[in-house]
Design brief:
There is one protein chain. The relative contact order is 0.16. The N and C termini lie far apart (78 Å). The chain is mainly β. The N terminus is likely disordered. The chain is built from no helices and 18 strands.
Length: 202
Amino acid sequence: GSSYEGSLPHVFSSRNGVVIIEDAEQYQWYSGINDHGDIVFTSNVNAGHMEIFMASPMKPPALKVKVNGTESPITITDRDRIEISLSLDPLDYTDRNADWWLMMKAPNGYFSMTKGGWRRNVYVFRGAPLTALTDKAVAVIPRPMIGKYTLYFCVDTIMDGMLDLGAGRMFCDTTEVNVVRYEPRKPVVVAKNPKVGDQKVV
């Protein structure tokens, strides 16, 4: 909690590492969260500027995007499926409103997952509070093109339907898929050895 003397500040924000206190009387102790998600502690401050002397960052959300059950880069053939699943642990950002993004750089361009399916270019997936997910299946690409795919699962904490790339606002995980041409295995030829009467593989 916060312990203080005097009135609470009307505005509490951070710009370039400096906390701004406006309309504040002198404090004995104050703690709060700035606009970068840091818990900051101050003491004996007057209205105006002051330096942060102690900061404890919030634990950022932990995101994972998996393809075919693994988060590591994989190689598949063009006859395989790309099955995408997402996991999210919001940690200190639980229930914070956010934009959710699932984007893909494919051999033929950039795509985004929307409520109506994949759509070319960049579009938000959903706007909703951050809640826990565990290996949630969200999309399948049944016959992928040959080439490299990069998948991005991101959340940003300004829920406005736009990509907000500021530090402390956007959190992402990525993985890659390399799709190669399917080549059937060469048949095994079994030949008979005329000298010994047995068979051998050639």
